[in-house]
Write a structure and sequence with these properties.
Layout (H helix, E strand, L loop, with lengths): L2 E3 L5 E5 L2 H4 L12 H6 L17 H15 L3 E5 L2 H4 L9 H16 L3 E7 L5 H4 L8 H16 L6 E6 L1 H9 L11 H25 L6 E6 L3 E3 L4 H24 L4 H8 L8 H7 L5 E5 L4 E4 L10 E3 L16 H14 L4 E6 L16 H19 L4 E7 L18 E4 L4 E4 L1 H11 L2 E3 L1
Parallel strand pairs: 2-3, 2-12, 3-4, 4-5, 5-6, 6-8, 7-9, 8-11, 11-12
Antiparallel strand pairs: 1-15, 9-10, 13-14
Helix pairs in contact: 3-5, 7-9, 8-9, 9-12, 13-14
The structure holds 5-hydroxymethyl-3,4-dihydroxypiperidine.
């Protein structure tokens, strides 16, 4: 057996997001979000489920923080719900909405758990969607104003600020594939939304720096996925480059290189309008202090119907393990991403801001949940993260997705990602075996494999 020790001060955390766990959709003056609207529209989610109740974290957050402390977490990543703070997107702020996050942060401090605050995890105020949402450039400015308000008024320290979570998902699943809010199906709109999301990110980082009030690191969390060709045919190889351009480089390049990737601009411009502005490019590339990487799987891709196909045909290699989401368990991918990002985009601190797996967990009569597949998954990914660190990759923390089972967007409550099992009938929480395993990992600051 070998010991894989992590450095002192490594962040051991778990993550959630507002809409997925909080419930209380109109408490204390909260406004409607695009996810409230989308999930309440028939046909959009599994069984018509929505986040109205979720895990009742808004009501039960103290208990939940207590559980985090019992597990030994030294960090918790949560998101701030924009429509709790600005029910109409902009205008008058709702102090009571901010109070919830202030109380949460205070409770975390009481337990010596470092708060990591994400400002946008997909719950745009519906009032802004009514004016065009992320496809409207004004939304970037509204986001900036909302972010500035939170920076200024959340008067307790957080450890890290994250502007956006997974802008690729907001833009493309929400505006091109229509499976996320706001449920649109137009690729031009999605490209514009992606651009305005990035612009909002850059504006918020700039505002944060210029205010000079805070020195906590600020960054962004991107969903990144290694892409591999299904064969070594030249068509599959070229497809993998395009799919990577769409999934990964379309966000990494503007943030770190101040321009969209040339090959993808060329490709997209053949059929779509690609947003372009030198001024915006400079804002989007406002330097950040760290990058958050959300990773779950890899994509293996076969060439699509033409050289213009930027998605290709994803294939599931046989004899691999797949999670309940149908995602391949591919631990080496985290090593590949960490080393690639470090070498291609600069030596800034990295965090794994999400990693985890959904499996069909079963609550036994004795209150236990034997989720050994999740333990194996997490152990595999952490071991590969450790391998990357041995090569000098500055990884500073790891967040399991998720602290607890929650509302998995269009899949409703049918997918369980948590370390903690939620009985949605009673709101009872049960520690899965993976939670106990993680507590031991944190306790020894590493793995025994
Ligand atoms: O639940 C989501 C989360 O909101 C963002 N990243 C991926 C998770 C699992 O799908």
């Amino acid at each position: 057996m070998s010991k894989l020790l992590f450095p002192e001060g490594f962040l051991w955390g778990a993550a959630t997001s507002a809409y997925q766990v909080e419930g209380s959709p109109s408490a204390d003056g909260k406004g409607e979000s695009i996810w409230d609207r989308f999930a309440h529209t028939p046909g959009n989610t599994w069984n018509g489920e929505n986040g109205d109740t979720a895990c009742e974290h808004y009501r039960l957050y103290r208990e939940d923080v207590g559980r985090m402390a019992d597990l030994g977490l030294n960090s918790y990543r949560f998101s701030v719900s924009w429509p709790r703070i600005f029910p109409a997107g902009g205008g008058k702020a709702n102090r009571k909405g901010l109070d919830f996050y202030r109380n949460l942060v205070e409770e975390l401090h009481r337990h010596r758990i470092r708060p990591v605050a994400t400002l946008y995890h997909w719950d745009l105020p519906q009032a802004l969607q009514d004016r065009g949402g992320w496809a409207n450039r004004d939304t970037a400015e509204y986001f900036n104003q909302y972010a500035a308000f939170v920076f200024e008024n959340l008067d307790l320290p957080v450890h890290l600020w994250i502007t956006l979570n997974e802008p690729w998902v907001s833009a493309f699943l929400g505006h091109a594939l229509g499976v996320h809010a706001p449920g649109l199906n137009d690729f031009n709109t999605a490209l514009q939304a992606a651009h305005n999301l990035l612009l909002g990110h850059g504006l918020a980082v700039k505002t944060y720096r210029e205010s000079g009030r805070k020195s906590e690191p600020i960054g962004i969390a991107l969903n990144l996925t290694p892409v591999e060709p299904a064969s070594d045919s030249s068509a599959d190889l070229a497809q993998a480059v395009r799919t990577d351009g769409f999934m990964n480089r379309w966000f990494l390049d503007p943030i770190f290189r101040s321009s969209y990737p040339r090959d993808m601009i060329e490709l997209f411009s053949r059929s779509f309008q690609v947003p372009h502005s030198e001024d915006d490019a400079a804002v989007i590339a406002e330097p950040i202090d760290f990058l958050g990487i959300n990773n779950y799987t890899r994509i293996v891709v076969r060439a699509g119907s033409s050289g213009e196909d930027f998605m290709g045909s994803p294939v599931n290699p046989p004899e691999k393990e797949y999670t309940e989401m149908g995602w391949e368990v591919y631990p080496r991918g985290i090593y590949e991403l960490l080393t690639r990002v470090h070498h291609d985009y600069g030596a800034l601190p990295l965090y794994i801001t999400e990693n985890g797996a959904a499996f069909p967990d079963r609550l036994k009569k004795d209150g236990t949940i034997d989720d050994s597949r999740r333990i194996a998954y997490l152990e595999g990914y952490l071991a590969e993260a450790w391998n990357a660190m041995q090569e000098g990759i500055p990884l500073q923390g790891y967040f399991v997705w998720s602290l607890m089972d929650n509302f998995e967007w269009s899949f409703g409550y049918s997918k369980r990602f948590g370390l903690i099992y939620i009985d949605y009938q009673t709101q009872e929480r049960y520690l899965k075996n993976s939670a106990c395993w993680y507590r031991d990992v944190i306790g020894r600051n590493g793995l025994e494999v």
